[in-house]
Amino acid sequence: MSALQALIFDVDGTLADTERDGHRVAFNQAFAHAGLDWDWSIELYGNLLAVTGGKERMRFYLDTYRPEIQMADSTIADLHKAKNQYYAQLLADGRIPLRPGVKRLLDEARAANLRLAISTTTTPANVFALLTGNIDANWFEVIAAGDIVPKKKPASDIYDYVLEQMKLPASACLAFEDSENGLISAMDAGIETIVTINDYTQDHNFDRAKLVLSDLGEPDRPCQVIRGNTYGSGCVDLPLLAKLVE
Ligand code: XBP
Ligand code: MG
Question: pTM above 0.85?
Fold first, then answer.
């Protein structure tokens, strides 16, 4: 691997636990507002997360659980727009904090002149809604999100796009993901990946990951190592990342 030059971050589940108490709640608010009787429980939403992308997820729900309902793509797109407005409101209310270690690692990376990017299937506005008040969006030289590529994760398109934009080889980057779909996407683009699990993804297959951790950890609040070698470090910091890419 060449020397580490860039860190590429997924958003949902990686920068913050946005799915259960963010996107899921916002979907239900949009459904209620539209007079639909759909109510996505925490458990059902875990199954629906198999499909990335909010519009794609709604179509999957209809096909799988409500095949009697015919719905036009334009109606799904309207529901998705409404859902993202509710989602932005939830974030503005301060309901979803960043995960442990995220801000610290970004600060360290910037101090060391590492380049930063985002690679996510979520809608661009949702990325900015999460970053606002937490992280300066300008820190990321590329924010690759949503429908910018034709195929969402687990396809590698979104990571391929980031590498192309940054003009970097995959071997000079590390990716941060929380899900199997995200890991497949990054690895198929050739990028070694650190996974921080959450309640929805803890049983996913992360065999290809460089490290699997509970979270990125803080010096005074070590992460739990699920798989891989952190060389005794209790948190993901730059000395550890340097060792991982040696
Ligand atoms: C995130 C997603 C997204 C969000 C909702 O996956 O799957 O669909 O749940 O976002 P990843 P939108 O973390 O792998 O990028 O509704 O804006 O699509
Ligand atoms: Mg994710």
Answer: yes
